[in-house]
Write a structure and sequence with these properties.
- The strands form two sheets. The chain has a six-stranded antiparallel beta sheet, with no helix packed on it.
- β2 and β3 form a beta hairpin.
- The protein has one domain: Jelly Rolls, CATH 2.60.120.
- The protein has 104 residues and is mainly beta.
- The two termini are 18 Å apart.
């Protein structure tokens, strides 16, 4: 057992920093996002669940605009295009299946 912030930080893009723990079958991420940060559209084989702990994150998922605020989540299927823009400072939890080997 350890604190999530004791894991080395991974800078995804400017303004977006994640801390990732890996199990046998999934990856758990705690993500800090600065207001105004933009995560460009992308896709990956992993199914992803994004849960907003704090703030407002506007996402475009498979061409649909989704505004997520604290307490909301979205399930992003495998290989579906998605991106995000932080309206405010945000804290989020991302869970991926299978393991994100590229985040190790």
């Amino acid at each position: 057992m350890q604190s999530i912030k004791s894991i080395p930080a991974k800078k995804l893009v400017p303004g977006i920093t994640g801390y990732y723990a890996h199990g046998k079958e999934l990856t758990f991420g705690y993500v800090e996002i600065k207001a105004g940060s933009n995560l460009p559209q992308h896709h990956h084989v992993h199914e992803q669940i994004t849960y907003i702990v704090e703030g407002q994150l506007d996402m475009v998922i498979d061409g649909k605009v989704v505004s997520l605020t604290a307490g909301m989540y979205y399930v992003i299927p495998s290989n579906v295009s998605h991106g995000a823009f932080a309206v405010t400072d945000c804290k989020a939890i991302d869970v991926f299946h299978p393991v994100r080997e590229d985040y190790k």
